[in-house]
Write a structure and sequence with these properties.
Elements (H helix, E strand, L loop, with lengths): L40 H12 L7 E4 L6 H14 L6 E5 L9 E5 L3 H25 L1 H31 L2 E6 L2 E8 L2 E2 L2 H6 L2 H58 L4 H16 L14 H6 L2 H5 L4 E5 L9 E4 L4 H5 L1 E2 L2 E3 L2 E3 L5 E2 L2 H5 L3 E5 H5 L4 H11 L1 E2 L4 H4 L13 E2 L3 E6 L1 H10 L3 H4 L2 E4 L3 E3 L2 H18 L6 H15 L4 E3 L2 H17 L7 H15 L1 H12 L9 E2 L2 E9 L4 E14 L3 E4 H4 L5 H18 L7 E7 L12 H13 L3 E2 L2 E3 L2 E2 L5 E2 L4 H15 L6 E5 L10 H9 L3 E5 L2 H9 L18 H32 L1
Parallel strand pairs: 1-16, 1-17, 8-13, 13-16, 21-26, 23-24, 26-29, 29-30
Antiparallel strand pairs: 2-3, 2-7, 4-5, 5-6, 9-12, 10-11, 14-15, 18-19, 20-25, 21-22, 22-24, 27-28
Helix pairs in contact: 1-2, 3-6, 4-6, 6-7, 17-18, 18-19, 18-20, 19-20, 23-24, 24-27, 24-28
Length: 811
């Protein structure tokens, strides 16, 4: 048969970019331009749309594999659009004079928050100065003395009246620190006990009655004096408060005028003013007060005056545009803020000045960027983030309360209105997971920005790739790259995606080659990076990570793993698989064998019976039965039993890329026609016998080539691949050179019939003649003859077994 027409030309084994397309000699000749996203038009459009829409719910979820530039592009895109947005308001927390446990939030235009804070600080200093001045002035003391003197006169009048009443009753009063003493008088002088004892009972009783009247009068006078004292206290306090009002009224007026259009500030200033008037004593505390026990319990003067300050919570002074916050550690408190506590006499206390902002507060009015993996690992973070987006408010909460660890003194700040865009960056898996388990996800994240791993290999994109090389080399201090080197980078990019007409957008893999090739060029004292340095960098990367593949080759070479690369065998073929470690993947050949015999069990998959195959692999076996039945069971059922095994494989097998290989080996066993062992096969098959494309074609071809190279190239060896996979060929240079010399071959087929002819050298003969028979001597004719033979054997066996069964029934 003619294998030549199926042989893949050398020109199609890889795609080499022509350096002549570049309008520069080295990247040093290129003009410096800002970084530009390459090959992500869909993502760019989605990003622009999502960032521009201002309605609620249009938050963004960035999906795509790592290394595609999604993080860098997201940060750049958000930063660029943020520059065009207005700077959001500052936020302050102030003391709530009516409900101290609920601090009040006040918003002010950007930059005004710190001014407001400074003005209130200045106001507090001026209030303290004015009050000390007012309470130490001569007028204040004179007026206070008048009030006190009037009180003393009233007290003396009350006492004089009481003394006069006592004298009328022949008693004299004496005021002492311990109280008031009464002495009875006789003949104008005090009566002692001996004289009192000599009096008659009537006289004693009269004196005692008068004493009771005097004592009642004294009690009445003391009560009146206490009322006068309370009246004095109120009068003095009212006098002092009026003094406070007169002293500080002028200090508040400029602030009222400045913030007359800000209702919340005016309300705060009025409450501030009345609280000062009510608690003016805070400003008159003695300096040594802080040393006594009461000060320790109620707070020092400085602590008591803390209520009259402003806590600048979010400050946007000197900022331009909307804020952009990338929170790398999105814990609950880092996102939503917290209230810090301090120990005081065995208890935890706090106040509104200890409220700390979270990323949501800092990004409010702008953009918040988080990584999905880190966010979802934090307890409560996702749930409360959703709640904030749904309610439009961000509340600072204490998780310790929910855990039963309630602090002694706690506050609950007023929640802030939330207006921002959240951009979450994550994998396809996390996006699908949230979509399926969270019914609110699509309501809150309506924009999906998907980064692709491939782009078209056009001259425009190739030039953009060259500019990327230029920008990165300049940024990292690498040598300039010759256009031949850039062309090799583009070829390497196509190899990363296994497609000649595509380029990879996973720039982290490309960056590794850039850094390492520059290293080798510098080591060789070159002034620029050439194509040989790119090849050396790629070769060194492979060498560092191919230890496992070398072990496999060594075992095959020693015969520990049995793989034939020459000769003919019936029912035996070399399949190809891709194995991988964390940093590399490589192709290995696997001997696949088949045994066919008369029976009714069908095709037994030994891997499946041993629980070593997956569902897709099992599906491939069912397709084989469908194909064989369609071709050879038109008139009678096939009495086939067969077993297929992947020899010397002890790990889990899945995928259908070996289904065509298994069909070839079955046909070989049925037709009893040997297969040439120097040809390895890959490709899946459908029930019509059409060969379907597979993945990892380059690794599979190179893996078998290296085995053949170790064992010795014969010039007849090669790999059979699906025709659709020709576009994926980006083979290594040594493989291409061997093919060009005729030492190795790549064949591409569309149908099983083409493949079996290449493998056996015998015509397939898949078209029946007018009599319904396959061409004599063809593979299909031999298979059908074998099935006919099996059918006759099975029929004869059934005829022999039938009398025995009937006899058993009669018994």
């Amino acid at each position: 048969m003619n294998r030549e027409k199926f042989r893949v030309p050398v020109s199609k084994l890889m795609s080499s970019f022509d350096p002549a397309h570049f309008p520069f000699e080295t990247t040093a000749d290129l003009d410096q331009q800002p970084n530009e996203m390459i090959g992500q038009q869909r993502a760019e459009q989605a990003m622009e749309f999502g960032l521009s829409v201002e309605q609620t719910g249009y938050n963004l979820f960035i999906v795509g594999p790592s290394g595609t530039g999604r993080m860098t592009y997201t940060l750049d895109s958000v930063a660029n659009i943020a520059k065009t947005r207005s700077v959001p308001d500052d936020w302050c927390y102030v003391y709530n004079f009516e409900n101290p446990d609920r601090p009040t939030a006040i918003s002010l235009p950007a930059g005004e928050g710190i001014r407001f804070q400074q003005k209130i600080e200045t106001l507090l200093i001026e209030i303290e100065r004015e009050l000390r001045t007012a309470f130490s002035g001569k007028n204040f003391e004179a007026n206070k003395q008048k009030i006190l003197e009037a009180f003393r006169d009233q007290i003396e009048d009350l006492w004089g009246t009481t003394e006069a009443f006592a004298l009328e009753k022949n008693f004299r009063l004496e005021r002492t620190p311990a109280g008031v003493n009464t002495y009875p008088l006789r003949m104008g002088r005090p009566l002692d006990r001996k004289e009192f004892a000599k009096l008659t009972e009537f006289e004693q009783e009269m004196i005692q009655q008068r004493e009771k009247q005097v004592e009642e009068k004294i009690r009445e006078t003391i009560f009146q004096m206490r009322e006068k004292e309370e009246e004095l206290r109120k009068t003095v306090e009212q006098f002092m408060r009026q003094t406070v009002v007169e002293a500080i009224e002028g200090l508040f007026q400029p602030l009222r005028e400045t913030y007359k259009h800000h209702e919340k500030v005016i309300t705060y200033l009025e409450a501030y003013f009345h609280d000062i008037v009510l608690h003016f004593s805070f400003f008159l505390a003695e300096e040594d007060e802080e040393n006594n026990v009461m000060a320790a319990l109620t707070g020092t003067t400085e602590q008591r005056l803390q209520r009259y300050t402003v806590h600048l919570f979010v400050n946007h002074k000197n900022e331009s545009g909307a804020p952009v916050i990338y929170e790398t550690n999105p814990t609950f408190y880092n996102l939503f803020g917290k209230v810090e506590y301090k120990g005081s006499f065995g208890a935890w206390t706090t106040d509104f000045t200890h409220i700390k902002p979270g990323a949501l507060h800092l990004a409010n009015g702008g953009y918040l960027i988080v990584q999905a993996t880190e966010l979802l690992q934090q307890p409560y973070a996702w749930t409360l983030l959703k709640r904030s987006l749904q309610t439009g408010y961000v509340q600072i909460e204490n998780l310790n309360e929910e855990r039963g660890m309630v602090p002694t003194s706690g506050i609950k700040p007023e929640p802030l209105p939330l207006n921002l865009k959240i951009i979450i960056i994550g994998s396809y898996y996390l996006y699908d997971l949230l979509s399926s388990i969270d019914e609110d996800f699509h309501k809150l994240f309506k924009v999906k920005v998907e980064f692709n791993t491939v782009m078209e290999k056009t001259n425009e994109n190739s030039l953009l790739m060259a500019r990327f090389v230029k920008n990165y080399s300049d940024k990292e201090g690498l040598l300039p790259f010759h256009r031949r080197a850039v062309a090799k980078v583009i070829d390497y990019s196509s190899r990363l995606v296994d497609e000649q007409t595509k380029l990879s957008t996973r720039f982290q893999d490309i960056v590794k080659v850039l850094v390492e090739s520059s290293y080798w060029a510098q080591k060789q004292d070159n002034t620029f990076v050439d194509d040989t340095h790119i090849e050396q960098a790629i070769a060194e990367q492979i060498h560092r990570s191919n230890h496992v593949s070398e072990l496999y080759r060594e075992r095959i070479e020693k015969g520990i793993i049995m793989v034939d690369t020459d000769g003919y065998r019936v029912g035996q073929i070399n399949g190809l698989a891709v194995m991988g470690t964390r940093d590399s993947s490589f192709g290995i050949p696997t001997k696949i064998t088949a045994q066919t015999y008369v029976g009714k069990t069908g095709i037994m998959n030994i891997e499946r019976e041993a629980a070593l195959s997956g569902q897709i692999h099992n599906k491939g076996h069912m397709i084989l039965i469908g194909y064989l039945s369609g071709q050879f069971a038109k008139n009678y059922a096939i009495p086939l039993s067969a077993s297929i095994a992947f020899e010397q494989t002890y790990s889990y097998i899945d995928g259908d890329s070996a289904s065509s290989t298994e069909l070839y080996v079955l046909l070989s066993s049925l037709a009893e026609v040997p297969i040439y062992q120097g040809i390895a096969v890959t490709g899946s098959v459908n029930q019509w016998g059409e060969i379907q494309p597979i993945g990892g074609v380059n690794e599979k071809i190179e893996g078998f080539f290296h085995i053949c190279q170790q064992k010795g190239l014969t010039g007849k060896q090669g790999v059979l691949i699906p025709k659709q996979n020709v576009a994926n060929l980006m083979l290594a240079a040594d493989v291409v050179e061997a093919v060009s010399r005729g030492d190795f071959h790549i064949w591409a087929v569309c149908d099983v019939t083409e493949g079996i002819e290449i493998l056996t050298g015998v015509p397939a003969g898949s078209v029946r003649d007018d009599d319904g028979a396959y061409p004599e001597g063809s593979i299909f004719a031999k298979v059908e003859a074998r099935f006919s033979q099996m059918y006759e054997v099975a029929k004869a066996r059934n005829q022999q077994e039938q009398p025995a069964k009937e006899e058993a029934v009669r018994d």
